[in-house]
Amino acid sequence: MLVTGYVLTAIVALGIIYIGLNYLFAPKKIAAGFGFNEVPENAETFLNVKGGRDIGAGLIPLALMIYGDAHALGWVMLTAAIWPVFDMLLILRHRGKKAIAFGVHGVTAAVMVVAALLLLLG
């Protein structure tokens, strides 16, 4: 159970770091896939900030994986699952693409909760 929790955590962490890097270096391209129907023209600065946040969000669980405290990592993953939940809710609130809201952000939150439970119970 612990190994699966660590693997899921690594996948999510590396995935969000990759997304963050894209928000820094190709913000308009990656923003189009976030789930909103349109991206404002002058949003690049905000998207760069989001990229930095995403990179930091991915580094936190990786640091805890290196530290080797599965229980602390489980709590971090459980609390951090709120980020993709809010992303999903924002997309739905602004009448964005439901498939991306549920299929990307909702599934990411669910995977994070599963990883957290595996780490906490393992």
Question: What does this protein look like?
Answer:
- The protein is mainly α.
- The chain has six helices and no strands.
- α1 (2-25) packs antiparallel against α3, α4 (70-80) runs antiparallel to α6 (98-121) and α5 runs antiparallel to α6.
- It is globular.
- The model has no long low-confidence stretch (mean pLDDT 95).
Short structural summary:
The chain is 82% helix and 0% strand.
Q: What's the pLDDT, averaged over the residues?
A: 95
Order of helices and strands: HHHHHH
Q: In this structure, how is the largest beta sheet organized?
A: none
Tally of DSSP helical segments: 6
The best one-word shape is globular
Radius of gyration: 15 Å
Strand content: under 5%
Label the structural class. mainly alpha
Measured between the Cα atoms of the first and last residue, the distance is 6 Å
How many β-strand runs? 0
Ranges where pLDDT stays below 50 over 5 or more residues in a row are none
Specify the helix fraction band: over 70%
Secondary structure elements and pairings:
Layout: H1 2-25, H2 27-31, H3 44-67, H4 70-80, H5 82-93, H6 98-121
Task: Please give a handful of descriptors for the protein shown.
122 residues, membrane, 6 helices, single chain, mainly alpha, transmembrane
